[in-house]
Design goal:
Structural class: alpha/beta
Number of helices: 10
Order of helices and strands: EHEEHEEHEEEHEHHEHHHHEE
Radius of gyration: 18 Å
CATH architecture of one domain: Alpha-Beta Complex
Strand content: 15-25%
Oligomer: single chain
């Protein structure tokens, strides 16, 4: 019998962190889960005391996190799928909370909040700015304003496969591209206000590399360039407007982008539209 949820953990040469990520998934309260670890070329070795940490292992070839996530997607047997990078930690109620709402609301995608925590400390920097979106039904322009962190998103496996999975060429934003393409198809999407995972911030993370290289604006523009040909007319126009905002704004961090988009929606579209399209929720 197929599991209800596949939990995919991606890792590359971070043995201690991935063991902690795995332990957090195995401690989740939802019972009907299969765990898939995708080792993207890092020679993962199962922990010696891991008798209670059951999982399937898929080997990658060091091709990047987007490819690793797609390998996990291909291996998934669950009706729903959720992801965790090796520098993330799932909270015990993560899957239970999200799948309960997904079932109740008939949602294809359901996501919660992710806390940012300084690695090796108890210092919390605050949540990834998805909290700017009101809990409840979510539309394309909500997701265009601020993307949920991948560790907080539960999706129907077949819906993610139907849009081609993660866009490996949308560097750093392969997951955001997937959620936007699902939203463009009119799928039901729902946001909950609960914190469901921690993202451990450290100098070796992908986001740290983007920030240190000053590449955030370029990565955003690459994402939007790749998305526009894939989208329906109204959503393509919304992305074109977002491109203009990004090009004209002083954007160094992802939070800068979210703040820019939030102001645009509040000041330019107080009538309840997002670049000419009705909003499903309001910032």
């Amino acid at each position: 019998m197929s599991p209800e949820v596949t939990a995919v953990i991606t890792t590359h040469v971070r043995p201690i962190r991935v063991y902690e990520a795995l332990a957090s998934v195995c401690a989740e309260t939802h019972a009907d889960i299969e765990v898939v670890i995708v080792d993207d070329g890092g020679s993962f070795v199962a922990p010696g005391n891991g008798a209670d940490l059951e999982f399937r292992l898929v080997r990658g070839a060091g091709l990047g996190v987007g490819t690793a996530r797609n390998l996990g997607l291909a291996a998934a047997g669950g009706e729903y799928i959720i992801f965790l990078d090796d520098d993330d930690v799932a909270m015990p109620h993560r899957i239970a909370r999200l799948i309960s709402v997904a079932r109740d609301r008939h949602a294809t995608v359901c996501f919660g909040m992710t806390r940012r925590v300084i690695d090796g400390t108890t210092e919390v920097l605050g949540s990834v700015p998805t909290h700017l979106v009101s809990p409840g039904p979510i539309g394309f322009c909500d997701l265009l304003t601020c993307a949920p962190h991948v560790n907080a998103v539960l999706a129907r496996t077949e819906a993610l496969r139907a849009v081609g999975g993660f866009d490996t060429a949308a560097a750093h934003f392969d997951d955001w591209s997937a959620w936007l393409r699902i939203a463009d198809r009119g799928a039901s999407m729902w946001c909950v206000s609960d914190d469901v995972a921690d993202w451990r911030i450290h100098d070796q993370g992908l986001s740290a590399g983007v920030l240190q290289g000053g590449a955030m604006k370029a990565r955003l523009l690459l994402l939007f360039e790749r998305l526009r040909p894939c989208l329906s007319g109204e959503n393509a126009r919304a992305v074109a407007a977002a491109v203009q905002l990004v090009q004209s704004a002083d954007i160094v961090t992802y939070d800068d982008y979210v703040a820019t988009m939030a102001v645009a929606r509040e000041t330019l579209h107080a009538d309840g539209t997002c670049f000419g399209r009705p909003l499903s929720s309001h910032l």
